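Human:
Take a look at this sequence-structure pair and walk me through the tokens.
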Amino acid sequence: MSTHVDSSVYLSLLFLIAASVALGCGKSNSGGSPEQGVGAAFVVPGSDTVILFNTDGERYVEFDRTTGRFSDSDETEDLGDDNPFDEVGAGSALPGGTEAVVFNETGSRGSVYDTATGDFSAPATFAAMYPGAPFARPSAGFITGDQVIFFDERGENYAAYNFVTSTWSNVFSFATEFGGGGAPFPAVGASFAFEAGGSEFYLFDRSGERFVIFDGGGVFSALMSLSDLGDGSLEF
């Protein structure tokens, strides 16, 4: 049996292969819609504004809790001045000022972001920023008093870092110990918190498409979808 391939067929095959490679290159939302789940978040200190990043960390919106409205989305690299990260995978407000901390997509490096000036600190590892960290990389965080609760890279465990004493708590299981247990999903992918006027801790699952609100006293809301967040118009 002949194995000869006609030259025109061969060239067509080369063209198809090259086209497939070209289409497969680039970021996940190239040529399509950005991922719509919430992958990271932090509250702008002293405000009712939350910065929400999508699940691949490439885009963000501002969410106003008071009005329930969302801003138009923008690229993460345009947040602040000289943002060192094109993608954000975790974040949290920090106590006592205007600062928040954000981490790159993998959580391997973080930077302190001054929301008043738009400045970012030089990136550093999680352990360098918060010595004694009980896990290598955070996947989410939220502020409560003088502490930030950080979730580990799988979102299954958490520990509190106290900014007054510069010490860590023990590590706890989210599924069995957060709020006494009872959360409707086993791991956290993003989170943020409001404490002024009553505690509200927003916890998103790993898909970023579902969330609950914890009241700080052991009660979780019903499981909700993103259409239940604010006025329901979130779009990255």
Notes: The longest helix spans residues 7-24.
